[in-house]
Amino acid sequence: MNLNLQRPLLFFDIESTGLNIASDCIIELSFVKIMPDGEERVKTWRVRPWDYANNCQKPINPSAMSVHGIKDEELKDCPRFCDIIDTVVRWIGDSDLSGFNSTKFDLPMLAEEIERVRKYTDKKPEINLHEKRMVDVQNIYHVMEPRNLKAAYRFYCGAELENAHAAEADTKATYEVLKAQLDKYSGTLKNDVEFLANFSERQRSVDYAGRLALNDKKEVIITFGKHKGKTAREVYFSEPSYFAWIENGEFTLDTKRQFALLKQQFDREKRKAAAESNEPLNEAQLRGATNRLANHFGSADKTGSLF
Predict the structure, then answer these.
(1) Could you write out the DSSP letters of every residue in 119-177?
(2) Are the C-beta atoms of residues 182 and 191 closer than 8 Å to each other?
(3) What distance, in Å, lies between the first and last C-alpha atoms of the chain?
(4) Torsion sign over Cα 106, 138, 196, 158
(5) HSE of 64, CA atoms in CB hemisphere, 13 A
(6) Which of 149, 175, 145 is nearest to 160 (CA)?
(7) At what angle do helices 241-248 and 253-277 cross, to 10 degrees?
(8) Measured between alpha carbons, how far is 292 from 286 in angstroms, rounded to an integer?
(9) Cα(196)–Cα(192) distance, rounded to whole angstroms?
(10) Exonuclease domain location, by residue (predicted)?
(11) pLDDT single digits (tens) 200-253
């Protein structure tokens, strides 16, 4: 069954230096872009994994190398992710996204590389992956036939997947599996990207690492640690220093960005509420304001008076 698309659907797959999203890097990225008229466009990059903080190539974890077979020396003349970011963003464009197990690994890894470009270079890619609809073919597979891509290809396509763990082969196989799923489950699945994205969405995470999620009331809650289950808003107003702890902690850049966006939202709400209250300053607030003015104008005497 051909896909019923209102806009392009971009299948993608990543090979990396390892499995730690916060510290590992993309070394191979493949896109298979399916246009609404059925045209297929394919683009694959080999990427030099770059440690921006130390300005050097990041080595591949031996356990990852044993899976994809890519060696460090093969990447020394390849572009870094920051060198291809503009092309990557153009390829994604207004596409919806799809992949195999992508919500748990490939999508967070891609988002983390984009955030590194924002943080460590002067480039500011104009893309927000959180706004994209994501069809995770593995989630559909696990819901309908509770197992990996090789098994899915054998089950749905009736053949063995050749060259598994090569990014382009895996990406094309994912596309073929989704089409076969639509044929097999035509009574359950709709040939519609929005339906498929909702069907395959198993977590209502706000960030890709799952540190923030939506509860039944659509409120953003914290999912770990001492504030597990509390709303982010509640924590902000009771312990605002928690947001600074997140910013300085060992969390993915995407998680830090989502916390920062929430803090900006809550800061605006706080300022608006203060402006609308028009309440006079109490003694402590007045003393604080006086000291700030004194520091600004440099004319306060030792008693704190401005005169």
Answers:
(1) HHSS------GGGS-EEEHHHHHHHH----HHHHHHHHHSSPPTTTT-HHHHHHHHHHH
(2) yes
(3) 82
(4) positive
(5) 18
(6) 149
(7) 160
(8) 10
(9) 6
(10) 8-187
(11) 665 578 999 989 998 878 899 999 989 988 999 999 999 999 999 999 998 999
**Taking a C-beta distance cutoff of 8 angstroms, is the pair 21, 210 a contact?**
no
Cβ proximity of 16 and 26 under 8 Å: yes
| Amino acid identity at 119 | K
Rg (alpha carbons) of the chain, rounded to whole number: 24
Q: Is residue 152 a contact partner of residue 100, using CB atoms and an 8 Å limit?
A: yes
Is the pTM value of this prediction over 0.90? no
CA–CA distances in Å: residue 38 to residues 8, 95, 120, 123, 156: 9, 14, 38, 33, 20
Q: Which of 147, 139, 105 is nearest to 14 (CA)?
A: 105
Q: Which token pair is 115?
A: 């955030």
* The predicted structure's pLDDT at residue 271: 87
SS3 call for 255 = helix
Would residue 83 be called left, alpha or beta, if left means φ above 0 and alpha means ψ between -120 and 50 degrees?
A: alpha
Q: Which two tokens stand for residue 17?
A: 């230096």
Q: Which two tokens stand for residue 79?
A: 């572009």
